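Changelog note: in this version the structure field was regenerated for every chain. One regenerated record is shown below for reference.
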Amino acid sequence: MLALVALLVAAGGVVAAPPPTPVCAICGEAFHEDVTATDATLQVRENGDVHWRVENEVADPTAGEWQANPDRVESLVDEALNDRSRPPADPTDPTVDVEDGTLTVEFVDRGVARQRLGLLVVPYLTGEGETNRYVVNADRFVVAAPDGGRIVNDPAGATVGDGRAVWTGVATTEEDRAAAWQAPRPDNTYVVTGSGATAGTRSAVVTTLEPLDPGLYGRYGLGLLFVALATYGIYRLQGTRLPRRSVAGGIGLVALPYVAGVAAIHPWWPAGIGALAWPLLGVAVALLPAVGGGVLYARAAAADGSPARG
């Protein structure tokens, strides 16, 4: 087992890293090669909506062409916003304006900030269980709390103050590599807004539990609970002819692919363990069913010596 883990760790270190993903589809050179600077402000509202305002400075002659042909740039914006692989999640009624060499795009992302323990959680900069390499592809990327609120956690890479979390990123570059490769990576981080004396404590709880997606894993948990209860019922049936050891072993064999499948579809692990993530996940997938099956087997072995009770 240790040799297998070491092999997996070594393999993880040599696999080429995927290219970084710009967090903003309508910012910087990720949107168009003639964008020279970008300022993005995301204003969180109390109802969970987030209002986006993105200002892209555009070089001539592209700026003049867009101003003369607004339909063309509107089509480009719509195409970029239809990319659901990155923020925003559900842009509504975008407006597009080109004036004095600046392209301004505004829209509302409905209900993206989640209500948690009286706080609002903005998940844009975290992949939520998906492996990602988001980078801040705007010269200034701001997430602002609702009026009267403040940022109550410490988002990675941001400067926090005056109710705002501000990232300094890279919208464009004239060097050989694309700006996305040079832009800062904030890691998987939430932005949490709220107010009150206990907001910081509540935020710590929320940011710890939020990646677990209790709704999703709760549904899988119900499936395992059903299997466990059904097995217990079989044990308790009067006059059952099913060998209890076989039932216990069967449960362990069923649990192994079940847990492995869930983990593969919805992986989650704490940030910062790098190449150890997949090996540790593999060990956990192997050990959890093994331990569970072992407990069931021991219980069954002890019960096999006595007749089933009603």
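Spot check on this record: Residues 1-15, 267-276 have pLDDT under 50 and may be disordered. The first helix runs from residue 2 to 14.
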